[in-house]
UniProtKB/TrEMBL annotation:
Monomer. Interacts with PqqE. The gene is pqqD. Pathway: Cofactor biosynthesis; pyrroloquinoline quinone biosynthesis. This is Pyrroloquinoline quinone biosynthesis peptide chaperone PqqD. It comes from the Bacteria. Keywords: PQQ biosynthesis. The keyword Phosphoprotein does not apply.
Length: 93
């Protein structure tokens, strides 16, 4: 799969998408129109860093400080999937 997420892109949640802590699930969830996605801790951390100011490379670098092992391709694939669903947008600038 070709990544739609350049390492210099600045990802952010689409305007109609939010993340929230769901007390009943005891997990972060991604909320979109008619959609609830339960996030694992790593996915929640990635999305928490997608604020439109950090590049994908900077997000990977920050995750590397938090976790023992971070694979760039896995972060890019995760973001690419969310971009294809229009839950995350990438600013190229």
């Amino acid at each position: 799969m070709t990544s739609t997420v350049p390492r210099t892109g600045r990802p952010h949640l689409a305007r109609f998408v939010k993340t929230r802590y769901d007390r009943s699930r005891e997990r972060q969830v991604l909320l979109g129109p008619e959609t609830v996605v339960v996030l694992n801790p790593t996915g929640a951390d990635i999305l928490g860093l997608c604020d439109g100011t950090r590049t994908v490379a900077e997000i990977v670098e920050e995750l590397g400080r938090r976790y023992d092992r971070v694979v760039d391709d896995e972060v890019e694939a995760f973001l690419s999937k969310l971009v294809s669903r229009r839950w995350v947008e990438i600013d190229h600038g």
